[in-house]
Design brief:
Order of helices and strands: HHHHHEEE
Helix content: 40-55%
Strand order of the largest sheet: 2-1-3
Largest sheet: 3 strands, mixed
Radius of gyration: 16 Å
Shape: elongated
Distance between the termini: 19 Å
Number of helices: 5
Length: 126
Amino acid sequence: MILLRRLLGDVLRRQRQRQGRTLREVSSSARVSLGYLSEVERGQKEASSELLSAICDALDVRMSELMREVSDELALAELARSAAATPNEPVPASVRPMLGSVSVTGVPPERVTIKAPAEAVDVVAA
């Protein structure tokens, strides 16, 4: 099962780490407890829209950018899950322009690893 809270937490963590900031710095700036922010980043807690807004403000990231990145991650996860379930089916032509090359490894589907470089457009299920 693809959990939105895990994808959201992963994207938040990457945003924070790109800036070289600590959980403590962001939690203080967002006025969110360190433990709660950590649980959100690990996908253990569902973040409310108010909390997400505070975290985005602390990270100086627009919520729309955050959600776009989460949406892209979700699309890749869904594609990987589908590819793992039906490894011999080609990717629909309508999906190809939206994706780079996606490699699916680590089946079963709930433990799929996704790597998506921008050069190619093939889906490989291993």
